[in-house]
Amino acid sequence: MAQAEERGGRATLTDAARALFADRGVDGVSMREIGRAAGHRNTNAVQYHFGDRDSLLAEVLRPHHDRVAARRAALLDELEAQGSPSLRGIAGALVRPSAALLEDAEGRDYLRIVADLVSDPTSLRRGRPLAGMGLTRWDAAARKVMPTTTLPLHRRFSAIHLCFTELGRRAAVGPRRRDHRLFVSDLVDLTTGVLGADV
Q1: Once rounded to an integer, what is the mean pLDDT over residues 138-149?
Q2: Alpha carbon distance 31, 47 (integer Å)
């Protein structure tokens, strides 16, 4: 019984945190606000269940990171089986796994949170938004096909930033947009252009 209540307490906190982080940004919400939004009377509920903000954030992101990483791995497996993937194929392996989350409310919240984190240099230095998304393998694959006339690290970071910023903007529109195919295709094209652009 106590374990079920604890799991329920953690779940309500992660749900409340996900919605608030998506709406106001990860650093725009206090731990107490999250506890109140989850219906907890104890003002230290978040600290009790998670310890700190980063641990709570990791719990909010983890299930979605896992889904995205699995999709990205499957796409990279397909591309590697082809022998020499195209730059557009590599761009698609960055965009499409995350874009699939535009289909549901929790996924859209997740994309808005990742966009917020990718836009925050302090978050990037701490590695918060990118760990667990399968980007290390994607990064290695991108390096192999990018033109040698580019600045590879800068271009890969720019592609990641563009991808998640645009997905976050699209997610903020909410369920009004039901068909994302053209948006995703355009974003893959833009990402391909960034990866292949000369400096």
Answers
A1: 87
A2: 8
Measured between alpha carbons, how far is 105 from 144 in angstroms, rounded to an integer?
35
Mean pLDDT computed over 119-138: 73
| E strand residue ranges, 38-165 | none
For residue 49 the two structure tokens come to 């269940």
Could you give the 3-state DSSP secondary structure of residue 135? helix
Residue 38: partners with Cβ closer than 8 Å, 6 or more residues away = 9, 12, 13, 15, 16, 17, 45
For 129-139, write each residue's pLDDT tens digit.
Answer: 667 888 999 99
What would you measure as the largest C-alpha separation in the chain, in angstroms?
A: 62
CB 102 within 8 A of CB 108: yes
129 within 8 A of 117, measured Cβ to Cβ: yes
Task: Find the radius of gyration of the CA atoms of the chain.
Answer: 18
pTM of the model: 0.88
Question: Of 79, 118, 72, which is closest to residue 97 (Cα–Cα)?
Answer: 72
Residue type, 146: M
Tell me the mean pLDDT in the region 124-130.
58
Q: Residue 101: what residue type?
A: L
Q: Which alpha helices (DSSP H) does the chain contain, by range?
A: 2-24, 31-37, 45-50, 53-82, 87-99, 105-118, 121-126, 135-145, 152-172, 181-196
- What is the DSSP secondary structure assignment for residue 82, as one 8-state letter? H
Quick one: which of 57, 162, 170, 58 has its CA closest to 111? Answer: 170
